[in-house]
Amino acid sequence: MGLSWQQGPLSAGAIGHFLTSEPLPERLLFVERLRRRMRVRFNDTWIADSEHVILLHEPGRYPVAYFPREDVDERALVPSGKVTRHKDLGDTTWYAVTAGDRTTERAAWELTALPAHAADLQGRTAFAWRAMDAFYEEDERILGHAADPYHRIDIRETSRTLEVRLGDTVVARSEHPVVLYESGFAPRWYVPRADIDEARLKPVEGQTFCPYKGLCDYYDIGDAHRAAWSYRAAYREVGRIGDLVSFEPDEIEVHLDGKRLELEPGQRVVAHGVDRGLDADEVKAH
């Protein structure tokens, strides 16, 4: 997902490789100026507000925003006395975050023994995503997890034939599915409900959330658990897949132009937790 997550070029599971004569280090870290105003809210208080955030991309992690200390409310940071060691960037000094009548331990940190090549992160503070109430870009909340500026979604129409089977039963057959290409993932194929035997779809409890697509509903098909899903009210940016259904080739037979699809490396979503206080109504209003 993006530069360093899932199968991005800086991730451990990258599907491509750099054309260099010398082998690259196993772990490559990348920092850049965000060029967006970012704010952090905790206990109804703005504790950080900056137009000079540095974003750190680290293999296997979502991007982490580092704020200049002068753009952080010093009253919100309480030294915890805890120091840990980052495998690439040296000592990490931890802080509790406090505002009003609430304090959360180990909710912020600063890299305090940086190697010379990582000086961009000197004098900067980062906040634990799930420990804060919310992160904002300008006045809009960033939902789910940190947004990756390299994450992209493209949706394309196709005249290929997609067929979904459960044993000898045809669950869906479409000659006009759409394909969704998303950074770090193999293609996903979405089918209009008119091309599906919806009696075969059994809604199941529990939704997941994608910061780029919205709330996701799931369906069992026979004994295949969560074999299909749908963004019934997809965000307007990806509205073309709204209320369409996609099928998991690892759980049920999915054939594209007669060839059975297999689950590709990196195609399965890796869970990363949820925001504090994030509810369905807020997601739908986004």
Task: Explain what this protein looks like in three dimensions.
The chain has 286 residues and is mainly β. 2% of the residues lie in helices and 43% in strands. It is built from 1 helix and 22 strands. It has a 7-stranded antiparallel beta sheet, with no helix packed on it. A 7-stranded antiparallel beta sheet has the order 12-15-16-20-19-18-17. A 4-stranded antiparallel beta sheet has the order 3-2-10-11, with no helix packed on it. Strand 18 (214-221) and strand 19 (224-230) form a beta hairpin. The two termini are 21 Å apart. Residues 271-276 have low confidence and may be disordered.
SSE map:
Elements: E1 30-33, E2 38-42, E3 45-50, E4 54-57, E5 64-68, E6 77-86, E7 90-99, E8 102-111, E9 124-127, E10 134-137, E11 140-141, E12 153-157, E13 162-166, E14 169-174, E15 178-182, E16 188-191, E17 202-210, E18 214-221, E19 224-230, E20 245-247, E21 253-256, E22 259-260, H1 280-285
Antiparallel strand pairs: 1-4, 2-3, 2-10, 4-5, 5-9, 6-7, 7-8, 8-9, 10-11, 12-15, 13-14, 13-21, 15-16, 16-20, 17-18, 18-19, 19-20, 21-22
Query: What class, by secondary structure content?
Result: mainly beta
Poorly predicted ranges:
271-276
Largest sheet: 7 strands, antiparallel
- Number of DSSP strand runs: 22
Residue share in helices?
under 10%
Radius of gyration over C-alpha positions, nearest whole angstrom: 22 Å
Average pLDDT level: 90
Strand order of the largest sheet: 1-4-5-9-8-7-6
Query: How many separate helices?
Result: 1
User: Cα distance, first to last residue?
Assistant: 21 Å
Q: Quote the beta fraction.
A: 35-45%
Could you state the order of secondary-structure elements as H and E?
A: EEEEEEEEEEEEEEEEEEEEEEH
Assign an overall shape. elongated
